[in-house]
Amino acid sequence: MKNKQWILKKFPVGEISEGDLVLEENEVASLSDSQILIRNIYLSLDPANRGWMSGQKSYVDAMQTGDIMRGGTIGIIEESKNEKFKKGEIVNCMGGWQQFCVSDGKGVRQIPLGTGFPLDSYMSVLGMTGLTAYFGLLDITDPQPGETLVVSAAAGAVGSIVCQIGKIKGCKVVGIAGSDTKCKWLVDELGIDSAINYKSENVRQRLKETCPDGIDIYFENVGGSITEAVLTRMNINGRISLCGLISGYNAESIVPGPAWGNLLIKRIKLKGFIVFDYFKRYMEAYQDITQWLKDDKIKYKNHIIPGIENAGEAIRKLFSGENEGKLIVQISEEPN
Amino acid sequence: MKNKQWILKKFPVGEISEGDLVLEENEVASLSDSQILIRNIYLSLDPANRGWMSGQKSYVDAMQTGDIMRGGTIGIIEESKNEKFKKGEIVNCMGGWQQFCVSDGKGVRQIPLGTGFPLDSYMSVLGMTGLTAYFGLLDITDPQPGETLVVSAAAGAVGSIVCQIGKIKGCKVVGIAGSDTKCKWLVDELGIDSAINYKSENVRQRLKETCPDGIDIYFENVGGSITEAVLTRMNINGRISLCGLISGYNAESIVPGPAWGNLLIKRIKLKGFIVFDYFKRYMEAYQDITQWLKDDKIKYKNHIIPGIENAGEAIRKLFSGENEGKLIVQISEEPN
User: Fold this and answer.
1) Which SS3 state, helix, strand or coil, does residue A162 take?
2) Which of B243, B255, B274 lies closest to A259 in CB terms?
């Protein structure tokens, strides 16, 4: 059986360019004892992918050239020699950029069926991005009613959920995004208070107008000049949840951060986090998010690109901001 | 009665230079109802003073040119028309760079006499710098036995107390300071594990050697390249207590900070603080520090410069690192 796989051929320098990732066709290995064969259905594309391609160890081991490109997936078990898994079960794992994945079951989790939610929602609002938004906002910043929350990359997979949880918690929410369409979606559909188009507006000036009482909480997805602008308007005892720094991921050398003077004078608490740190508390988040979805308090948008062949092109959309919602590649059909 | 006073004539650009602060002689005003007259004995010189001279509002109101230079003092009440204060009491307040201070009693606290500790210790280990060290380390970083603590400006008034509280809490303590004499004092007299002379040694290399298990806690007093070096060796879930950034205080424009990538990947918690935030918990710190002094677990060094005339020259020592211990100007004699 053939298996199309994207292979990391070179560590990208700056933007990912053609030739860094190459699509190859290989044979699927036959299963050893305790292994399972998964047919990948959905592949998650995330800003963090860029860091995995840097050749540098971070919170996960560094990828090597020649590796199958790493990625989170949802798939269906086609064959099992592992008693913990049955043929036909739907699972979530790091299945990689390929059609089929052979696994020993480590890190593979069954997704409950019959919840009424579409399968691709488990790649976003009910998957890692929803969990990231939940813990990054609630655990790190403890938002209180009436506080002002600013979210960067607000129309993104994580940011859009953060915005809505902020509203649920009674915050005034201001989102920063990269197009008028995204800003309109944030305000009109998701119900946040204001949105700022950082590509066409003066962020510093607009933050002044939209956050007259200063900023209590900043959910950081981007870094760079947006962060500088936010820091100058933070209130005393403000909190910053440091989730991502996408503006710098394609940089060819390390970009300095903002001066720490504002963090000191304003007694800011800043905390970096990775969603995996909250593994033991995932159920808590699922319960809340599921309820909010049922109550129509949370909306989400998945941007599904069909065909594994298109993954290499699709990931570039993330960094240019062309995606509308959580970026997912559909590798094969869902089961009926 | 004459009163020598240092007046802020110009906001310094870069280093404080002659003419920014000018010594003048004025008359002491006679007391109105509810006022007190304090004769200043000791004047505290601190890195934060530079920020107060910037013309920018921070955690306190901005100073204006023409103001008496702001500073923490210990003094004796010479005359009182306020029922809360009696002649002869020793008090701590923001008495300013002058021989006499007229106050309405706001922010003036009596210092208990007969404790057995010298009066100038209330300007350092039993004053703001001791409290700063105590809360900045214990409240923000929660040091655990066996963890590695790195302290910058380690031989300074705050840093040297942080180092010793770190040892009391069972940490491995590595200090960074600016001379071999200071480093020797830290290791031989204060008993920390290692010291690095940042002026003559490669900090990055020496941190590698002295912190083989990485750095769990960083007590930040300086900013700049030392911070960069520390960040690269921080462990996952590390904590940073952001107390000061002296390396940038004389900068003529804002110096960028380190990239936030390490804060994210390593899930660092960073918190800025100002000791005044802990006002309600001061007694807790006094009790512990007093006990540690009695048990000879904490040593301190005050660098006392006699004569109010010398304050203008003395403050420059702070930024060149020429001071040995807490920098204090003695304005008048202690009572017998």
Assistant:
1) helix
2) B255
Kindly determine whether residue A257 and residue B260, on different chains, have CB atoms separated by under 8 Å: yes
Residue in B58, B258, B273 closest to A256 by CB = B258
Q: Tell me how far apart the alpha carbons of residues A42 and A21 are, in angstroms, rounded to a whole number.
A: 19
Average pLDDT over residues A263-291: 94
- Expressed as residue numbers, the domain containing A28 is 2-124+300-330
Distances from the Cα of B91 to the Cα of B80, B231, B270, angstroms: 12, 41, 35
Look at residue B336 and tell me if it is in a domain: no
Residues B62 and B107 in one domain: yes
Whole-number Å distance between alpha carbons of B232 and B238? 11
We report the CATH number of the domain holding residue A323 as 3.90.180.10
Nearest in space to B94 (alpha carbons), one of B53, B133, B49, B132: B49
Cross-chain Cβ contact A259/B263 below 8 Å: no
Count other C-beta atoms under 10 Å from residue B20's C-beta.
19
Nearest-Cα distance to chain B for A286, in Å, is 23
Is the separation of the CB atoms in B93 and B75 below 8 Å? yes
- A-B CB pairs within 8 A amount to 100
Residues in chain A closer than 8 A to B248 (CB atoms):
259, 261
Q: Are B100 and B39 in contact (CB under 8 A)?
A: yes
Mean pLDDT to the nearest integer, A297-303: 95
Residue A316, both tokens: 């570039």
Q: Taking the CB of residue B255, how many other CB atoms lie within 10 A of it?
A: 15
Rounded average pLDDT over B271-293: 94
- Assigned token pair, A90: 């739907």
In the chain, the amino acid numbered A188 is D
Residues of A with CB under 8 A from a CB of B: 51, 58-59, 220, 223, 227, 236, 242-245, 248, 254-261, 263-274, 277
Residue by residue, DSSP assigns B200-231 as TS-HHHHHHHH-TT-EEEEEESS-THHHHHHH
Kindly state whether residue A252 falls inside one of the protein's structural domains. yes
Contact A59 B265 (CB under 8 A): yes
- B271 shares its domain with B146: yes
User: Mind telling me how many Å the CA of A306 is from chain B's nearest CA?
Assistant: 32
Specify whether the CB–CB gap between B158 and B131 falls below 8 A: no
Considering its fold, how many domains does chain A have in total? 2
**Do residues B146 and B119 share a domain?**
no
CA diameter of chain A = 63
Shortest distance between the Cα of A67 and any Cα of chain B, in A, equals 22
Question: In B, which residues are within 8 Å of A269 by CB distance?
Answer: 269-271
Regarding whether A315 and A207 lie in a shared domain, the answer is no
Q: Name the residue facing B277 among A223, A267, A273 (closest C-beta).
A: A267
Cα–Cα dist A60/B160, whole Å: 37
**Residue A263 is nearest to which of B236, B242, B268, comparing CB atoms?**
B242
Indicate whether A335 belongs to any domain.
no
Distance of alpha carbon B19 from alpha carbon B26, whole angstroms:
18
**pLDDT of A264 higher than 90:** yes
Residue B152 domain-assigned (yes or no): yes
ipTM of the complex: 0.87
Residue A316 sits in the same domain as residue A222: no
- Whether B263 and B132 map to the same domain: the answer is yes
Give chain A positions within 8 Å (CB) of B255. 259
Can you give the pLDDT at residue B259? Answer: 87
CATH number of the domain that residue B258 is part of? 3.40.50.720
Is there a single domain that holds both residue A150 and residue A199?
A: yes
Distance between first and last Cα of chain B: 22
- Measured between CA atoms, the residue of chain A closest to residue B141 is A269
Domain co-membership, A149 together with A117 = no
pLDDT tens, A20-44? 999 999 999 899 999 999 999 999 9
